Amino acid sequence: MGESITFWVLAVVSVIAALGLVFSRRAVYSALMLGVVMLSLAVLYAVQDAPFLAAVQIIVYTGAVMMLFLFVLMLVGVDSSDSLVETIKGQRFWAVVGGLGFAALLALGIGNAVAGSPKGLAAATEGGGNVSSLAQLIFTRHVFAFEVTSALLITAALGAMVLAHRERAEAKPTQRDLSRQRFAAFGRTGKNPAPLPGPGTYARHNAIDMPALLPDGTIAPLSVNRYIARYEESKGILPPEVAEVLEQEEAARRAAQANGHGGEHGTPTVADEARDAGPDTEPMPEDGTGQDTVVAGRVVRPRGESAATEEDGK
Q: Entry's Pfam families (predicted)?
């Protein structure tokens, strides 16, 4: 009685989870439904006096195969859109061939189960118990199917790597290209091409709210986080050293505006940082274009003309 109740309850749960696995639109939900199906099968194996199959179902399939699916989700991404570009030639043909082969194997398995007469558990395990009888069948009569299953798992791992592969739409910028872009931005806007000093470089703390200290003990203006400084200023807890740096910066900005320079060079102000925010991808003009280019505050003549340079001063 208890075996029948367990079977009908888990059968309904397994069928519902299998339908959710097939029709779910999100890969995470499909993986969860697959786990429910595997655990339900493990319980059914245990009820049918097959403890080895129940343990294998949990350890191998739920523990290993499910981990493989999770690795695929981590590599591909949960929110990544499906690509309609076929990167493997002939994959539709081989997908149809594989589907027909799987349908034929499924039909043969169902037909064998329906047409054949069951031997019973006692007759199947008379060779020395559940584990030894199962091992004898796997490595003698069903060794080909066992090896095909191993090849299927290897194919799944290779499929995960293929799905994780992405074709680049454009060439990856090299360190030289990135350096040229930084100095081109410095020539146009005066944005510092060097990286910002790390927080807490000479301080006793390593946090973003602790500005770096120069060797003379003063605060490095480029390491002051403007967002945190504004928040601390609104709460009235801004340190006086940081407030002094911000006042000096504001005075320099007003002086530059009064002189008509707009603060293009020197320490970037908050407005300059907001204006220059985001990656600068404009390439450096090539030599021989017949136009002057500005690099690091100097006007550079093209090749073939005068090699002399003049200071821009701005």
A: Oxidored_q3 (PF00499)
CA 120 to chain centre: 50
pLDDT tens-digit profile of 155-196? 988 887 887 777 777 888 888 888 888 888 888 887 778 776
Q: Cα–Cα distance between 177 and 116 in angstroms, integer? A: 71
169 DSSP 8-state letter: S
Say whether both 66 and 185 belong to one domain. no
DSSP 82: P
For residue range 2-31, list pLDDT tens digits in order. Answer: 788 888 899 999 999 999 988 888 778 888
Range of the domain at 303: 176-313
CA angle 267, 183, 215 (to 5 degrees): 40
**44 Cα distance to chain centroid:** 37
Which CATH number is 38's domain given? 1.20.120.1200
Half-sphere exposure of residue 115, counting CA atoms within 13 Å on the CB side? 6
pTM (2 d.p.): 0.41
| DSSP-assigned beta bridge partners for residue 311 | 298
